[in-house]
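User: Predict the complex with PBG.
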Amino acid sequence: MPYPEIRPRRLRRNAAVRRLVSETRVDPAELVVPMFVKEGLAEPRAIASLPGVLQHSRDSLRKAAVEAVQAGVGGIMLFGVPASRDEYGSGGIDPNGILNVAIRDVVAEVGDATVVMSDLCLDEFTSHGHCGVLTPDGAVDNDATLAAYAEMAVAQAAAGADVVGPSGMMDGQVGVVRRALDAAGHCDVAVLAYAVKYASAFYGPFRDAVESALEGDRRTYQQDPANLRESLREVALDVAEGADMVMVKPALPYLDVVSAVRAAVDVPVAAYQVSGEYAMVEAAAANGWVDRERLMLETLTSIRRAGAQIILTYWAVEAAQLLRQRY
Ligand code: PBG
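Assistant: Here is the predicted structure with PBG placed in the model:
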């Protein structure tokens, strides 16, 4: 060894020194837990492809929200599963639709103790499962969909959402939602734009969770996994249209995108560790092939290191509990 001896291992020799020099920490306050609530359920129901995640009843959702707040998570992202659907997805706009009712329930239960967010998209509410309304020949009609998103945003804000998350990848959705919120007096409601959303096979288990009716795919509106520059364009458009925060989705297979987006904008960047990312780890862990807790924290640390300041993850509550023991 040449003198002076450079030995990076000195800073790895025990847990105390590793903790001292750690460059990245995942803080529970930056984790957001997605939750599903299904209309008409008396008891919560398991989702086979998302072990540990539930379709909540209204009652169990309120309890889960309290538990999430106690664990210290930064936010809750709500998804509704309606009992019936139609071509226009009108259940998303109806103030008594399951998602809007659930927003009111959660806000009443936890108030300002965490940030209540709602998915702003039609796919859970349409009979065909697309994120927008269709033209007579079956294409997703961008501008007709925008009008529905505007109404949906106002309904969610009226129900008490702190943040709405337009996730349908329609052109112009952020601007339309922002203007509609402002016009209705909801200037304080923030927009978390799903700015970069790939047409991904990693959403498989989510489609079970919301009992999606989709046949076919979403490739005319979600992005091609091959493209990075296109993401930067999407992000620039959303920020120009008034996005308060931008999100990249999925997370782990797209860390290069997270990092490029972080470098490109100054607004908070979120990443969504989606259902398939979670399910893969859970399935491997159930087989005893990987260490579940270590992998959970390793994936979250990696997403954080890549530049996501906010992480949506189905592990949020458990990870928050583990992290609080650790630091
Ligand atoms: C659309 C939406 C989807 C997800 C979040 N919002 C599904 C899709 O685009 O097909 C997927 C989340 C996940 O897989 O965990 N409302």
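The first strand starts at residue 31 and ends at 38.
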